[in-house]
Amino acid sequence: MSDPIPAILDRIDDDQPRALDRLMELLRIPSISTDPDHADDCDTAADWLVAELTHLGFRATKRDTPGHPMVVAHGGEGDRHVLFYGHYDVQPVDPLSEWNRKPFDPAIESTQRGKVIRARGASDDKGQLMTFLEACRAWKAETGKLPLRITVLFEGEEESGSPSLVPFLRANREELSAEIALICDTGLYDDKVPAIVTSLRGLLAEEVTITGPDRDLHSGMYGGPAMNPARVLTRILGGLHDDAGRVQVPGFYDGVGEPPAEVAEGWTALGFSTEAFLGEVGLSHAAGERGRSGLEMLWSRPTAEINGLLSGYTGRGFKTVLPSTAQAKVSFRLVGGQDPDRLRAAFRDWVIARMPPDCHVTFDGHGGAAASAMSTGDPVFSLVRRALSEEWGREAAFVGGAGSIPIAGYFQKELGMESVLTGFARDDDQIHSPNEKYDVESFRKGIRSWARILGALA
Ligand SMILES: [Zn+2]
Fold first, then answer.
1. How remote is the CA of residue 242 from the centroid of ligand 1, in Å?
2. Which of 3, 266, 375, 387 gives the lowest tally of CB atoms within 10 Å of its CB?
3. Predicted confidence (pLDDT) per residue in 237-249, tens digit
4. How close is the Cα of 299 to the center of ligand 1, in Å?
């Protein structure tokens, strides 16, 4: 059989108006997962996807969970079996007054940078998951079938912490296990360069409360003899980093490695400008570890950040209080093999060891998730990379994810399955914010990218 790809790509371009209509139909369903008032809408979105997948020849079902339903579908045949993941739920829309149109009344708008589809979920993640479905549609229409065995998993709780996901993966391990997962919920490196996320930082957070005197005191009457917990807390936090930007908690860097040479070289080739990156937020000097590049600081190095501080009088004017308590919220972005449980204990010990007499400290722990790294040596990575590079005319970048996308870790842990994370969102898509949009061109090239990827994997 001759190469069907050119005809499939032409078909995708010809079918764009219909593909946009279909996406807008899905965008009209206000499937906000965190809001119980929208539970029926989440259900409707799942039904809509089941109908679409069925129309494309998949055996598609809506599966109940204690929360919002999952959509699972199976289609195609062949030796290679891939799982595609996306989520149909969206973030809440407030503040509504900052939207320039109704969030669930999508429309194509012309902007200085080209046409965009504006609506909640246009980019995260409905537009992205539809790029995959449209690629399947084009393959089916042109060749009569899907080019390989595909299982689809659409989640409806991604924006509300995925409470049902792990139990669902465990209960359906056999059905959902494939050779590799394709996850479409990330972005381009920039407008013209596609990206595959190959590592994701983990997260650990702690609230620290230090108590000194048993009530707030007047500094004129007690200042001098009485220990001030704000003084204790700031001294401790001030010692969290040394002058070279390295975190001082003992054992903090245990398990931190360097990225594979191929990945590191790719980062250098991206020509990332830390100055330009910081310039956009009014800064000019990198504050991370000395001797590390901006991309290393973002993608392969762990961090400690103070996210909140509370103590004493913070209202208008002045009050010479000697506060009873001082509180800080501290979080760590983790990389490589850093163990969140061990680090939590190490951080607490480090703080406790710095407590003077008359003060005591309590901790309240939040989220602890290890980093995840994808095995870029897997041949599927090279196939996906080549297909993306052909579509975009630029070598697809292997990038680190600065945020946290737990799904790839769950697939690894629960199903023993590696993930390829690629997507077509842009930095200015305003996901989770008012006026979310997806570029029409991202949508078109996203569909074409998946069509090529499916062909390459077949
Ligand atoms: Zn998302």
1. 36
2. 3
3. 999 999 999 999 9
4. 19
pLDDT of res. 348: 98
- pLDDT at position 403: 59
Ligand 1 centroid vs 248 CA: distance in angstroms? Answer: 34
pLDDT beneath 70, residues of the chain: 1, 402-404
Predicted pLDDT of residue 327: 98
Question: SS3 string of the chain?
Answer: CCCCHHHHHHHHHHCHHHHHHHHHHHHCCCCECCCHHHHHHHHHHHHHHHHHHHHCCCEEEEECCCCCCEEEEEECCCCCEEEEEEECCECCCCCHHHCCCCCCCCEEEEECCEEEEECCCCCCCHHHHHHHHHHHHHHHHHHCCCCCEEEEEEECCHHHCCCCHHHHHHHCHHHHCCCEEEECCCECCECCECEEEEEECEEEEEEEEEECCCCCEEHHHHECCECCHHHHHHHHHHCCECCCCCECCCCCCCCCCCCCHHHHHHHHHCCCCHHHHHHCCCCCCCCCCCCCCHHHHHHCCCEEEEEEEEECCCCCCCCCEECCEEEEEEEEEECCCCCHHHHHHHHHHHHHCCCCCCCEEEEEEEEEECCEECCCCCHHHHHHHHHHHHHHCCCCEEEEECCCCHHHHHHHHHHCCEEEEECCECHHHCCCCCCCEEEHHHHHHHHHHHHHHHHHHC
This prediction has a pTM of: 0.88
* 162 CA from centroid of ligand 1 (Å): 11
